[in-house]
Amino acid sequence: VMSFILIYFFFFQAEDGIRDAQESRGLGDVYKRQVSTQSTGDPADAIAIQQMLFHVKPDLVIEIGTNTGGGAIFYSSIMRMYNPQAKVVTVDTRPVSNWRDGAKSGVNLTYCDRCIIGTEHPFWTDGGITFIQGRISGNSNCKVIERLQEFVDKAKTVLVIEDAGHEKNTVALHTEALHKFVSVNSYMLVQDTKLTRLSPIKRKKGGVGPVPAVEAFIKAHSNFVVDRRYEYLMYSQHHWGWLRKTRV
To answer: For residue 44, what is the enclosing H or E element?
Structure first.
């Protein structure tokens, strides 16, 4: 009984810990040991994501929310194991973050002084990762969507990871704009859905954070379902965010 209580307490604390702009105590540490690139994330979800990638085997992953570029490098490292030609296209409204320079300039950031910047990693320069700086809009002539379409047209299996601002309206905009790119039996992963549960506002006045956007999306698109198979031991920072496309 005591062991069960201790294990449950560990997972509860891990899920509730918001890291914000701190050096990752989870997935970022994995990057630092393996590829020397700083990022943020959770080690349990890293395992789940790598298994999702290996099960689906997308030859194209579209990531929305680049930050330091560590996520794109991680996804690429997994994808290259089953397809050396697999591509990651990562999109952000800002340039790839440089936490090292930010910390040196007085910004309150903790950084790994032994890590390289994401854009300095070999995966970033050998064609496996493409960075697009721009903003996704709902307009039919959105330049970012047009560029993504060029990559989608050359891919067989596409998977989308939404990891941008996590606000309700932003998530709603991105899921609506990007769901058409997702292949059947592939996923659109909406990250950090925990922020809805942790918000002091919770779900008042239509809710905040990613979950209300996910719920509205699922209601509007019956060809997507919430697939909880990767929420191992009922734990994930992205609970209710693993959206599988069941049909066209």
So the answer is: helix 43-56
